[in-house]
Amino acid sequence: MAPEVRRRRTLGQVLLLSAGFLVLVAVSTASVLLVNKARSDSAWVVHTVEAENQINALLLEVRRAESAARAYLLTQGQEFLNDHEAAVAAIGPVLEKLHGLVADNPAQVENLATLRSVIETRLSQFDREKLLVARGDLAAAIALVRDAGSTSSSKTMRDTAEAMRLEEERLLALRTANADASQQLAAIVTITGSALVVVLAIISVLLVRRSTRARDDAEAQLRESNLNLEATVDERTADLREANEEIQRFAYIVSHDLRSPLVNIMGFTSELDELRNDIFRRIATLARAASDAPPPAEGTEPELEGADQQLSEDFTEALGFIKSSIAKMDRLISAILNLTREGRREFVPVRVDTRELIEGIVSTLAHQAAETDTTIRVEPLPAIVSDRLALEQIFSNLIDNAIKYLKPGVPGDIAIRARTKLGFAIFEITDNGRGIDPRDHQRIFDLFRRAGTQDRPGQGIGLAHVRALVRRLGGTMSVASELDQGSTFTITLPINWNASNRNSDR
User: Fold this and answer.
1) Backbone conformation region of residue 293, classed left if phi is above 0, alpha if psi is from -120 to 50, else beta
2) Are 457 and 472 in contact (CB under 8 A)?
3) Average pLDDT of the chain?
4) Closest among 449, 491, 490, 488 to 470, alpha carbons compared
5) Residue 213 to residue 216: CA distance in whole angstroms
6) Is 166 left (phi over 0), alpha (psi -120 to 50) or beta?
7) Are 379 and 416 in contact (CB under 8 A)?
8) Pick from 448, 498, 499, 445: which is nearest to 467 by CA?
9) Cys-Cys crosslink for 284: which of 172, 231, 302, 305, Cβ 3.0 to 4.6 Å?
10) Distance (Å, whole) CA 140 – CA 121
């Protein structure tokens, strides 16, 4: 699949997921808002019904009080008086509850005030009637009842109560319609949102199926490519192994061929050194004879003077350069031979207690450490499966370098520590030595390349050899260092190394 197609497909999936998320958020938000509105509208419907019920309850209590008063007037029965007083006592709470229910409607508040005034007037008439009956003046009480019936208070009470009922019925119809509309809208939003979610789910399923088919096709192509790749890798590996073996044979042969003329040069240099003594002894003798100087005593070396002495010194210096170059060439040839031998050696994985191994290395370097006043600290280290000889060469070289390149006059402090992570052991060798310029961090791993002041013996192959061994063991190597700040070499090695796939990487 082309990168552009993958990018568009990924973008489409992200947009689809985003759209689905937004739809869910919108539907959830709208549903919550509409449910709250429907609940509020329903509460107002209940409020209106309760207000209408309270109006009816108020009229009922007033009629009850009026009926009980008239019965008491006719019979003077105490039970009718008690019933009348109970009805009068209930009127007050009903009025207060009705006032609380209609307080949000100014028209109803005004009607309630009128109704309250009429009821209070009617109750005061009831009180006067009871008082006349209690005095035994029934004629006056009956006359008062006739006067009350001829007034408009009863009609005003009925009309006001009816107006309040009509207003509440109007509000009930309006609020019921609002509640129904809210419920319908909530149902529409829920159904629409559910439909959108279902559509998005279907699209997602289709996309997932298409992606699954594409992935299956890609896996099939990958398996086919892997089969071809394995064959190609095997072929290339065989070619590389053959080329490496050819290079090693060539290096071995060249090293031997170089050593043969080098031995001859070393022999002729020794003969030339002996000839030098004879030549300059003859020159000294001839010079003394030419100057009529007495010959030197038997067995003594004639002394050279002037230009002859300078020529002898130059000759000696030239021979010294030749000898040192021959010695360096011999060391390099020996190093190349050692590298070729190591390249041919088969690594054998064994379980190695790295702390025990490194403590053994430290004990062999105890003399050098004592001379430089160096403390070597070995912290707890993990056991790993690897090639023991390769590990000895790796850590011996690094610890020896740490001792060799300490700052003059400063007691050395070298620490070897390790930790494990994801199947690898990570070793760190830290020192407080002269450090390495960051520009030379890669240079020090190159063959025959050295960094910093060259005041220590070496051919520049140690770290290159160490890195090659680490790579053959399936690991990596790095350095962190600053000038005059010490160095930390980090070696990462697999805890359980398998030689079957690494020995061929020669």
Assistant:
1) beta
2) no
3) 77
4) 491
5) 5
6) alpha
7) yes
8) 445
9) 302
10) 18
384-402 as b/e, with b when 16 or more CB fall inside 10 Å?
bebbbebbbbbbbbbbebb
**Among candidate residues 392, 386, 430, 432, the one with its CA nearest the CA of residue 411:** 432
Q: Is residue 373 a contact partner of residue 419, using CB atoms and an 8 Å limit? A: no
Is the pLDDT at 273 greater than 50? The verdict is yes
Element (H, E) at 480: strand 476-481
Instruction: Report the distance separating Cα 27 and Cα 38, nearest Å.
Output: 16
Residue, of 28 and 300, whose pLDDT is higher: 28
Please tell me whether residue 440 adopts helix, strand or coil conformation: helix
Is residue 24's pLDDT more than 80? no
Alpha-carbon gap, residue 495 to 5, rounded angstroms: 41
CA nearest neighbour of 279 among 308, 300, 307, 299: 308
Which letter does DSSP use for residue 496 in this model? B
* 95, amino acid identity: L
Nearest-CA neighbor of 493 among 404, 406, 382? 382
The strand order across the sheet containing 424-431 reads 375-378, 413-421, 424-431, 487-494, 476-481
Beta strands (DSSP E) in 407-475 are 413-421, 424-431
With contact defined as beta carbons under 8 Å apart, do 178 and 47 qualify?
Answer: no
Number of residues assigned to the chain: 506
Query: What are the backbone dihedrals phi and psi of residue 488, each rounded to the nearest 5 degrees, phi first?
Result: -130, 115
Q: How many helices (H) and strands (E) does the chain have?
A: 10, 7
- Looking up tokens 């509000």 gives 171
Q: Do the Cβ atoms of 122 and 115 come closer than 8 Å? A: no
pLDDT score recorded for residue 245:
62
Are the CB atoms for 343 and 382 separated by under 8 Å? no
First to last CA, the chain: 37
d(CA 360, CA 383): 15
Q: What is the DSSP string of 30-77?
A: HHHHHHHHHHHHHHHHHHHHHHHHHHHHHHHHHHHHHHHHHHHHHH--
Over residues 322-350, the pLDDT tens digits come to 777 777 677 666 666 666 665 556 788 99
Nearest partner of 362 among 417, 406, 410, 399, judged by Cα = 399
Question: Confidence band (pLDDT; 50, 70, 90) for 355?
Answer: very high
* H/E run at residue 479: strand 476-481
| C-beta of residue 164 within 8 angstroms of C-beta of residue 55 | yes
Contact 506, 242 (CB under 8 A): no
Cα dist. 375→378, 411, 413 in Å?
A: 10, 8, 5
Whether the CB-CB separation of 182 and 38 falls below 8 Å is answered with yes
Q: Which of 125, 151, 58 is nearest to 98 (CA)?
A: 58
Compute the distance between CA of residue 213 and CA of residue 219 in angstroms, rounded to an integer.
Answer: 10
Cα–Cα distance for residue pair 161/61, rounded to 1 Å: 13
How far apart are the C-alpha atoms of 317 and 312, rounded to whole Å?
9
